[in-house]
Amino acid sequence: MIPNQACLLKKIGIMDLSRNSFSGTIPHCFHNITFGKINATNLSFPQTHATYTIWYKEETPRYASLLGKFLSGGAMDLAFDNQVKVEFVTKYRSRSYKGGILDYMSGLDLSCNKLTRGIPVELGQLSSIHSLNLSYNQLTGSIPKEFSSLDSIESLDLSHNNLSGEIPSTLIDLNFMAIFNVAYNNLSGKVPEMKNQFGTFENSSYEGNPFLCGPPLENGCSTIVEKSKPKASERKWYQVDPIAFFASFSVSYIIFFSMVVSILYINPYWRQRCFNLIEDLMYWSYFTVLTPLKRLSGQLCLH
């Protein structure tokens, strides 16, 4: 697990904990970490020194030991006179940086681990962070709406997880976001409108989510709705709602009966015709049904 003591770190430029075997959840206290440009008036981090990265990777044992010393309660001095080259992954590119340029870079990379459960909404308070990479984990739940407060974010990668729900439409207000990737999750609903930076994102940013719809995807939202509803021709008689059927039948019968009674009451001609018809039916029933039955019963008695 990522220890909560990591939340005590301050003045961090880039924190890279990727490609490890961290499990469990992302600490909710990560928003307490100060990312971004170092204040030039801070005497603990003079402007003449480089901004250093906290690494916890097998490929960089030097920084792993430093972080381990800090987490175990020891002091850790990050003010080195030598400029250290740092590899920073953002916007799908991995490049090395050193010197004062790192003062203007900030990022959190937790990719390629085994982190589970939901994304802490508190990460939305990292308003000065430029890159956030949570890809290739086992994160679940929805994308926090609080991510719309990441005002400085340029690269947001949430791909290859188990996230569900809709993509918050408020993310279109992130004017500096050049990279957005939520591919290969379980997201659904309509993709945010192609406005501002979202107008530059292609299909590859959303692929692997079969229930997402809308431009730039090929799936139209109306198509998905139609697929979810059975066609009228495919429905069977036993799929008819019995309550609706009997209700409509009863209403129709009452209306028909009321109309017949009204016509017979108002129009004497049709009333007389109706009585004559009933009388004819009674005579017909007597001679065609009752008379043969009487003859048949008489013959049976003789035998």
TrEMBL record:
Keywords: Cell membrane, Glycoprotein, Leucine-rich repeat, Membrane, Repeat, Signal, Transmembrane, Transmembrane helix. GO terms for cellular component: endomembrane system; plasma membrane. The chain crosses the membrane at residues 243-266. It comes from the Eukaryota. The keyword DNA repair does not apply. InterPro entries: Leu-rich_rpt, RLP_Defense_Trigger. It is found in: Cell membrane; Endomembrane system. It is a single-pass membrane protein. The keyword Secreted does not apply. Belongs to the RLP family. This is Uncharacterized protein. It comes from Carya illinoinensis.
